[in-house]
Amino acid sequence: MKEILIATGNEHKVKEFKEMLEPMGYTIKSLKDLDTNIEIHETGTTFEENSMIKAKTLHEALGCAVMADDSGLQVDALDGAPGVYSARFMGEDTSYDIKNQYIIDAVKGKPRGAQFVCVISYVEEDGTEHSFRGVVEGEIHDHMLGENGFGYDPIFYYPPYKTTLANVSEEMKNAVSHRGVALRQCVAYLKEKQQ
Fold this sequence. Notes:
The protein is built from 5 helices and 7 strands. It is an alpha/beta fold. The protein has a single domain, classed as Maf protein, CATH 3.90.950.10. Strand 4 and strand 5 form a beta hairpin. The longest helix has 17 residues, at about 180-195. The chain starts with a strand and ends with a helix.
């Protein structure tokens, strides 16, 4: 059985990866399963760079297959911000309610277009590198709506659903989410490799 380390301690993300990869016979471990604390410096300016930095750092330290993702919200009216700084936007200790309200206020009277972007980098055991990119297009809603999801989901209005991603079931969100799109590309690659 093949083992893949997911470069996150975020339970939400680990669950998503497990649901997609375990049925294919992979054992999924996360940073919480490690006894070691490896420092990762996300110095990239793109989602591709940051996710690959995470995957390569852990692969070089541990020698195992590693998947890492970097994702965030890009708001057209804010020139693509918060982008790669989505988690650190306005300071890491700032609540998402405050961040979300700031973005709602910042786009008033401006174009509301926005994208969630996710890049998953996969470094195989032998060091081969791959990147998979998922994007979901939407708009910034005029108020926070919904209790599901996390982060910027309450302000991300998805036109086909006519509501925000925080206001639909997890299944509906995962069907169109940026991470889901990137993960499905990754799974398609792994399935092809297994044949």
